[in-house]
Design brief:
By secondary structure, this protein is of the alpha/beta class. The protein folds into two domains: 7-16 and 80-297, Type I PLP-dependent aspartate aminotransferase-like (Major domain) (Aspartate Aminotransferase, domain 2), CATH 3.40.640; 55-64 and 301-390, Alpha-Beta Complex (Aspartate Aminotransferase, domain 1). The protein is 43% helix and 15% strand. The protein is built from 16 helices and twelve strands. The protein has helices at residues 7-13, 22-32, 42-55, 76-84, 94-108, 122-132, 148-155, 173-178, 202-212, 231-234, 237-241, 270-277, 288-297, 301-324, 345-354, 377-390; strands spanning 63-64, 115-118, 138-143, 159-164, 184-190, 217-221, 246-251, 264-267, 336-340, 357-358, 360-364, 367-373. It has a seven-stranded mixed β-sheet with strand order 2-8-7-6-5-3-4. It has a three-stranded antiparallel β-sheet with strand order 9-12-11, with helices on one face. It binds pyridoxal-5'-phosphate. Pyridoxal-5'-phosphate binds at residues 68, 120-122, 146, 190, 194, 221, 223, 251, 253, 259, 264.
Length: 391
């Protein structure tokens, strides 16, 4: 089994204690040893609230543009592998996970000790939230940015330090660095940033990672990095390979079109992987069918290129609609676009939903903003039709 994880390593990579059901009791035991300040599960509830509107929309949904999914995926090869894997669905996918991890390691030039897989990146963000907030530590983030990790950290012992974005809606690295204290547990960088779709200068971010990671762990959430024209040039995985105290999170939920299939991973130093492994069952969360689909779809360049090209075409169309209606927008490096509204954000969401179009709103810099995910062309046309009635 040189090319795949043996069972022992698989269990280790899943953060499980050796020996059968010790898995559950061990994990639960460790979790119950966690700080006892968990007050609620508000972020999960929030997701439920968001999906509630979809489970009971006021009318037929014409465009689902609220969760930054990729409607062009998963690829045909991934779908076939997924259905083929059903027959062996009674087996734990030990070997298959090993094969997937090997693919990731070979492509990225890391070793399996650097990788921790899970059912999406969400459980890994949660693991980091729990670990790095211990003892009342501060989590530094941009504002607005993806709030899953810091909002969970707050439910444990963490303190959320929010740093406003720069005038061009990018994360303000200098201001974030200036906020680091002896009590900082983690700096969380979402690059490209959700919800503003802005991306940082690669060299500046690299220098930041090298410098700041000497003081504190830097978490780079690269959920949308696959939308960059040169992913290898933009990723901070090189900082991990250079030995820095940096964690890079990746997900199959976006360009791969696996949001409902659930697969993500982090690449980090082996001791970081070991520490975070305590806070999640890791690979035991992932289904055999999803792993099979991911093996078939990983770095399937033709599919990825095609999905990216379709996304860009839909995005150009959206830009033209916004311009024609006299709206400004933040130029986007991702599969979503943020623009300031001329009416109340909540009301706009409701009115668009009544017209079968799901989008999301934000409030920051004293303005109401809309975030539109990029969908198929017919979805963007449905957006345009509804938007013109309200703009
Ligand atoms: C920046 C960012 N990170 C992480 C996630 C979580 O993705 P998943 O758990 O599907 O991998 C999302 C989802 O939208 C996201 O926008």
């Amino acid at each position: 089994m040189s090319n795949s994880l043996n069972r022992r390593n698989w269990i280790k990579s899943s953060a499980l204690m050796a020996g059968g059901l010790a898995f559950l009791s061990g994990t639960v035991g460790k979790l119950s040893a966690m700080p006892a300040k968990v007050k609620a599960v508000a972020p999960f509830k929030r997701v439920t609230d968001q999906t509630a509107i979809l489970s009971a929309p006021p009318g037929p949904m014409k465009a689902r543009l609220l969760a930054n999914e990729n409607p062009f995926g998963p690829s045909a090869a991934a779908k076939k592998a997924l259905t083929d894997a059903i027959d062996t669905g009674y087996q734990y996918p030990f070997q298959q996970l090993g094969d997937l991890v090997k693919k990731i390691c070979d492509y990225e030039g890391v070793t399996r000790d650097n990788v921790l897989c899970d059912s999406g990146s969400t459980p890994l963000l949660l693991a980091a939230a729990m670990y790095y907030s211990k003892g009342g530590k501060e989590i530094i983030t941009g504002d607005p940015s993806y709030d899953d990790l810091p909002s969970h950290a707050q439910l444990f012992e963490g303190k959320w330090v929010k740093v406003p974005l720069t005038a061009d809606y990018k994360l303000d690295l200098d201001a974030m660095e200036a906020k680091i204290t002896d009590n900082t547990g983690l700096v969380y960088i979402c690059n490209p940033n959700n919800p503003t779709a802005t991306v940082l200068d690669t060299e500046k971010l690299k220098a930041f990672c090298e410098r700041v990671s000497k003081k504190v762990t830097v978490f780079i959430d690269e959920a949308y990095i696959d939308y960059m024209p040169d992913v290898k040039a933009a990723t901070m995985i090189g900082c991990v390979k250079a030995g820095n105290n940096v964690i890079v999170a990746r997900t199959f939920s976006k360009l791969y079109g696996f949001a409902g299939l659930r697969l993500g991973y982090i690449i980090a130093q082996p001791d970081t992987v070991d520490k975070l492994s305590i806070y999640t069952p890791g690979a035991f969360n992932i289904s055999a069918t999803t792993i099979a689909a991911a093996i078939a779809g990983y770095r399937e360049e033709d599919f990825l290129k095609d999905a990216l090209a379709k996304t860009l075409a839909s995005k150009e169309y959206l830009y033209s609609v916004l311009k024609a209606e006299g709206y400004e927008y933040i130029p986007s490096s991702t599969n979503f676009v943020m623009f300031p509204l001329k009416m109340d954000g909540k009301q706009f969401v409701q009115e668009m939903m009544k017209r079968g179009v799901g989008i999301r709103n934000w409030k920051f810099n004293g303005k109401d903003w809309c975030r539109v995910s990029i969908g198929r062309m017919d979805e963007m046309q449905a957006f345009a039709e509804a938007f013109k009635q309200l703009s």
